[in-house]
Amino acid sequence: MNDIIQNFEREQMRVDIPHFKTGDTIKVYAKIKEGDKERIQVFQGFVIRKRKGTTGSTFTVRKVSYGIGVERVFPLHSPTIEKIEVISKGKVRRGRLYFMRKLKGKAARIKEKRT
Q1: What domains, with CATH codes, occur in the chain?
Q2: pTM of this structure
Q3: What is the pLDDT, as a whole number, of residue 2?
Q4: Which of 11, 17, 45, 75 is the most buried (most CB within 10 A)?
């Protein structure tokens, strides 16, 4: 029974998702349905959390819009996500960046990883 569930979850997982980690700045192209119309909305920010798993894995993206912090949780393998672009790799030492919620201005920057 457990093998059947694992095989079904493996079939539902997406393979077109790029590799990104906590601290990376990404653009998420999400499908938004308004009435009978559908459009794509871009949400750009840095990843403060990535929850691992199979089909239930999620990631949280944070951005500051007009001085107000906005966070959004995306299911990783959701069909509502059109695509994900990695803008820059961040250099962080934590797996969860919840402390960034309290920081403002220059203190809220993440160093870029040099390659």
Answers
A1: 2-98 (2.30.30.790)
A2: 0.86
A3: 83
A4: 45
